[in-house]
Amino acid sequence: MNIKEIIRIKWNSAFLWMVVIPVLIAGIYYTFIASERYVSESKLIVKQTGESNTGSFSLALFGAGNLAREDALFLKEYIHSFDMLDFLDKKFKLRQAYQDKGIDFISRLPSEASREDFLEYYRKHAEVNFDEISSVITLRVQAFKPEFAQQLNQAIVEQSERFINAISHKIAGEQMLFVEQELARTKDRLKGAQNRMLGFQNVHHVLDPVEQAKAMAGFITQMETGIAAQEAELKNLLTYLNEDSYQVIALKNKIESLRQQIAKEKERLSGSDSNRLNKISAEFQELRFDTEFITDIYKATLSAMETTRVEASKKLKNLVVLASSTMPEEAEYPKRAYILATMFVVLMLVYGIARLTVATIKEHRE
């Protein structure tokens, strides 16, 4: 037997072990051993209460598409979370179902699997896809029985709906709670300012010292005008009457009384007394400005609460089921023909590369 024949035999043996036997083993496994997996599919979309179906192109330009994508990512994270897994495990005893002895040894969940391994195994059997154009979320759940696949899909959809509703209502509730707390705080401030104003009025026995000061200033002006008129009349009398005449003395007494009254009123208005009217007016004006300012804040907060209530109701989100969970009639996995064909092509490439490498090395040695 020459060297070429020996090499040919070796390469035939290599082809057998590198290509034929692995493909044969895989063919036996996928044909006779591998458990069939059924897929139940549902289509969902997250919609806001105030969201319109018109003008989708414009909305996408202004970020509505990004919001839909965020909602889909949040939902995907929740579906693939420990919370969802715990819910399904409690409802369906999912770990036991995945470890069922009827499932082939490669496909089933190992009995010693950790909680993290259990989650990873579940994630591989619950696929969530998002369509950027239509904003539709596709949920594909795999199971080894068609009924169980549909049940799992339905349970995931129902729990996801509760999750979306809880999150949106929580956000809306927190917004309303904040505004309501601000309203209550502002209302307390307004009551306090009103009570301080009432207390001030009761202490000083005056309803509106500002108006009273204006009235008093007007009264003083009138009296000063009256004095000027009386003094003019006095000068006229002195032109033909003596200083000790009855009319002159009476007019002088009247003018002096008016001057005393003016001095008294001015003392009340702006004297050194702590209860002078100008000081009381300034304090009252400050209290009134404070009350009016807090009243404006209270009105603005009331308006903000109504606006927030409307906006919060528009932002409430719901999970809309576009296509309910399907009942699969045929197993979708494993894709036997595809897997075996792909495996054969890959092994042939590896085999060919190995032969080419060996031939190149041999040629260099020679």
Q: Can you describe this structure?
A:
This protein has helices at 3-33, 56-61, 64-79, 82-92, 94-98, 115-124, 146-204, 209-238, 246-270, 277-314, 336-365, and strands at 38-48, 126-130, 137-143, 317-323. It is α+β, with helices and mostly antiparallel strands. Strands 2-3-1-4 form a four-stranded antiparallel beta sheet. The longest helix has 59 residues, at 146-204. The protein is rod-shaped and about 160 Å long. The model is unreliable at 53-64 (pLDDT under 50).
Number of strands: 4
- Beta-strand portion reads 5-15%
For the largest beta-sheet, the strand count, sense and barrel status come to:
4 strands, antiparallel
- N to C succession of SSEs: HEHHHHHEEHHHHEH
Average pLDDT confidence is 82
Features of the shown structure:
366 residues; alpha+beta; four-stranded antiparallel beta sheet; 8% strand
